[in-house]
Amino acid sequence: MYAYDELDRTLINERVAEFRDQVKRRLSGELTEDEFKMLRLQNGVYLQLHAYMFRVAIPYGTLSSKQLRRLAHVARRYDRGYGHFTTRQNIQFNWIKLAELPDALADLAEVGIHAMQTSGNNTRNVTSDQWAGVAPGEIEDPRIWSELIRQYTTLHPEFSFLPRKFKFAITASEHDRAAIKVHDIGLRLHKNASGETGFEVLVGGGLGRTPFIGKTIKPFIPGRDLLSYIEAILRVYNQYGRRDNIYKARIKILVHELGIEKFAKEVEDEWLAMGDSALTLDDAVVEDIRSRFTYPAYEKLPHMPDELKKAAHDPKFEAWRKNSVALHKVPGYAIVTLSLKPVGGPPGDATAEQMDAVADLADKYSFGEIRVGHEQNLALPHVARRDLPVLWRALDKIGLATPNVNLVSDIIACPGLDYCSLANARSIPIAQELTRRFANHDTANLIGRLHINISGCINACGHHHVGHIGILGVEKNGEEFYQITIGGRADENAEVGVLIGPAVPYGEVADVIEDIVEAYLALRARPDELFVDTVKRLGVEPFRERVYATR
Amino acid sequence: MPLVKNGKITGDAFVHIADDAEIPGDGAVLISAARFLGDAGALSRRVGKTGVIWPNNRDVDDLVPYLDRVAVVALVFPSFRDGRAYSQARLLRERYGYRGELRATGQVLRDQFVFMLRAGFDAFEVKKDSDAEAFANTAKRYSVFYQPTGDGRVTALHRRMQLRHSESAGQ
Fold this sequence. Notes:
Chain A is of the alpha+beta class and 551 residues long.
């Protein structure tokens, strides 16, 4: 956990005071809606179909139990008793009242949570691996650097009015759980040939209307130069990124139009011109941030405690353990993923009661810490393996032990037309129907790892391009239709999925997905060949045939 | 449109001269970049003070040779959403050492003041009277800053280090 100090606390309190003044000026009519719009967006407030939506940042996906309880409080006091975890380690509240927003922000500020720059054309919440600091084999904890970037990008005087939004993601593991290749800047901590730790910098990844996989702009940069190099990228983008067309304003378009070599040269020239700047991070500064991350005092515990051996006789427990429990870097401990994808439920939603209960369980079994992943699930990062059976029973009681993590019903979905004013089609009911179709755990297990991602419009908040199966809602003559892509992925081998054929109407989507899955089961070379690997091997054609032969 | 300088509303000594109007030999004037560059040598030797209105889509490099001879550089915010002039301001101040007046013009609103001050602006053609009147209070909104810029404010990272040093010195 990162502990705010007096300076961090002062800054977010000053931000709350500023926003309170802005809301007051809006309500009195001193600010026009056009002027206020940018100000509220910079504080995570959107106007949706039914009400204001409020997006709160969970930097690098780390929460304390105290913070989670406060999110539950906001859900209960200012909203309708639930929140929605997003694909970028944020939580959204859908029914907030403008006049109450400053109070909600003040309540959150007390526990070191803010909503700064969770929307608007600025640098957004810095995301990272939800297993940061606990994943075996990690280079180092990427959250130290995430926090440095969080501070650096917060209220940046030069980059708060960029051509378009700008997103960072960081990983320090070989397996990328942070989707860094589909971010404006992706950072991968690694060691170079001489054993020094630094970053591979990727730029220009992104989804939306024109998806691009990020390209390497710098194979290795030491940590001390990270912020100055980022500043050089942002400065080039701020000056030359397109501002004439909102759909061509992301950095990916600038990188694409200039070509990565020319863009890299612009950045390099700017970076060299900056010289040794005040942004250079000396070791003492990095150590100071590092020292404010606290880690649990782990005990020496057995890998196979009696509690676990005994519980292994319960097939329901075993199904959950095999699915939702991952190896921890410390022997005797485990990382537990809490599925927010119950059968028939909207993906990523949690009620205030669930949040409070998870906070209590975190206190009891995970040193008071909770993580939020971009797949819209939660995790308890430090669970003693002996506690797994009792934790499972507790999670099962509150509906958070669905053993479908990374399986076909672990669906990523945006809020879609049920809430969002940008959407063309519904996402949530499609996800709900699919979870019912694939509710049988044995079937889902047989299918294996399969990510379905659903977006209700081309803005791609549901990351449909990088779903193993991607579903994109479009509107045709006033009706909801869905384009289906297959073969996408968001990990270290990120790829954009390929369209399998014409869009299908709302009522047929679930059938089509079942057909695709059946085709895969018939086509896969071995039971452990994953869906994406089969698509890679065979291309989309056999799937297209299967789906459209009878339609 | 009120001008705020040194934190206060003041009269503007500079007269905007349209591109087709004659430039007086003396008196302080603000002229467009295109016109200035058309005859930069002579204009920068005028008896009166000369200021340049620099558009946000032109590299400031072209202005750099004349920086010690212009009295005002006026950067433009065609909309408050367009942040290009923040980069120009920092480059002028921090890379090219410009010390004259750096003026923000265009859609300059209250909620940009702190960003502008931090980027190096010291004069503001403020769009609304009420915003101009609120300048002094708005400029004090923040006391903590995370980024180093040329404005000399100490960043949070460095204040922490100073605090650490003073703590260990006291022990």
